[in-house]
Amino acid sequence: MVERTVLAGARVVLPTGVVEDGRVTVEGRRIAANESAEQATLDLSGKGYWIVPGFVDMHVHGGGGASFSAGDPEEALTAIRTHRAHGTTTMVASTVTGDLDDLARQAAALSELTEQGDLAGIHFEGPFISPHRCGAHQPELLRDPHPADVRKLVDAARGAARMMTLAPELAGGLESVRLLADHGVIAAVGHTDSSYEATLDAIEAGATVATHLFNAMPSLMHRAPGPIAALLEDDRVTVELINDGTHLHPAVLELAFARAGADRVAFITDAMGAAGMSDGMYPLGPMSVEVKDGVARIADGPTAGSIAGSTLTLDTAFKRAVTIDELPVGDAVRALSATPARLLGVADRVGSLEPGKDADLVILDASYDLVGVMRKGDWVVKPEVR
Ligand SMILES: [Zn+2]
Q1: Residue 160 has what pLDDT?
Q2: What is the pLDDT of residues 277-328, one digit of tens each?
Q3: In angstroms, what is the span from residue 134 Cα to ligand 1's centroid?
């Protein structure tokens, strides 16, 4: 007899809309069909609670003081557990620019965690990015996207490579986009100095994601629309947004939503090791980052002062989206779950609260603060209900 858990009396966000006084039934590791006569195991009535799908983060570098760039499975698990406690039940591990051999070694280690189901894959951010838009990435380790080098990283990930961020205007850029698309790896345009026209070429070659749109790329200018306009206008492209209040002004976020819609926006954290921690000094790949008032900046070297990822967690991104950005809850949920799940090719298992899918869910109180997280039927954070 498989254990059944019935969560009742909450506002449940389904793909079809919000069900007031709804219920979610969990059987073993999966969501099951509700049976109306069944007694609630956990009655959340009268609290104004929400039940939403577990969040999916397609761009995250670490958390809890740990970094995926260490290429150490134990350290990676610390980052994974930190984000799970904040509602992210599915995530990829993002690397930062490094030496190719070192990145290949990291990828091999992270591929094991992908195989055992703790990660949904690997996202390589760099080294094939623009020296003019490298942000927190080490300039001396950047290189052009030679297809053989791109291939080396994809192979090192042993089937776990899900995405690579590159600057398509660099030598070998378009060829590499095609290579990635042919291998089922998302080619993401980012850390780029690309023009509007060159970005259209990259999309034509198979690029389908904009890495943290607006950040680390030329601004939208009225006579030179640059990559932002190209990436926003094409229905084949999904745009990542970092909703931490530092990377984007709320008005800019609203603009992106108005143009692309929640089916083409994926909220990401781009979080580094300090996510879920207090202010202080943290490593990001080979560099040091100082976190002050929750904002992470490179501490020294040629890129000193650059914003170095975020300390965001997706529960905070959700709360900001519905309170500060005033997005409808259903749109915020899609941008945090269904859209990234579809991109990562895992929408058959996660991304929405439908029977047959993994029992990955987040419970939020009436103020949108996280009170519970369940992953594959197990409580990561069990709500305290009196
Ligand atoms: Zn990043």
Answers
A1: 98
A2: 889 988 776 778 899 988 889 888 888 888 888 899 999 999 999 999 999 9
A3: 11
3-state class (DSSP) for residue 215: coil
Using 50, 70 and 90 to split pLDDT, how confident is the model at 230?
very high
Q: What is the mean pLDDT of residues 102-113?
A: 97
What is the distance in A from the centroid of ligand 1 to the CA of 158? 22
Which residue is it, tokens 């947004």?
241
3-state SS assignment for residue 210: strand
Helix (H, G, I), strand (E, B) or coil at 218: coil
Residue ranges matching CATH 3.20.20.140 in the chain: 55-343
Q: State pLDDT tens for residues 112-167.
A: 999 999 999 999 998 999 999 988 888 899 999 999 999 999 999 999 999 999 99
What does the DSSP assignment read for 166-192?
E-TTSTTHHHHHHHHHHTT-EEEE-S-
Residue ranges with CB less than 5 Å from ion ligand 1: 125, 270
Architecture label for domain 55-343: Alpha-Beta Barrel (3.20)
Element (H, E) at 103: helix 100-115
- When the pLDDT of each residue in the chain is averaged and rounded to a whole number, the result is 95
Sorting pLDDT into bands at 50, 70 and 90, what band is 179? very high
CA–centroid distance, 314 to ligand 1, in Å, is 15
Helix axes 173-182, 196-205, angle to 10 degrees: 30
Whole-number Å distance, alpha carbon 310 to ligand 1 midpoint, is: 9
Q: Which fold has domain 4-53+352-381?
A: Urease, subunit C; domain 1 (2.30.40)
* Phi and psi at residue 264, to the nearest 5°: -125, 15
Q: 155 CA to middle of ligand 1, Å?
A: 21
Q: Measured in angstroms, how far is the CA atom of residue 271 from the centroid of ligand 1?
A: 7
Positions marked active-site: 270
Give CATH 2.30.40.10 domain extents, the chain. Answer: 4-53+352-381
Q: At what angle do helices 226-233 and 250-260 cross, to 10 degrees?
A: 40
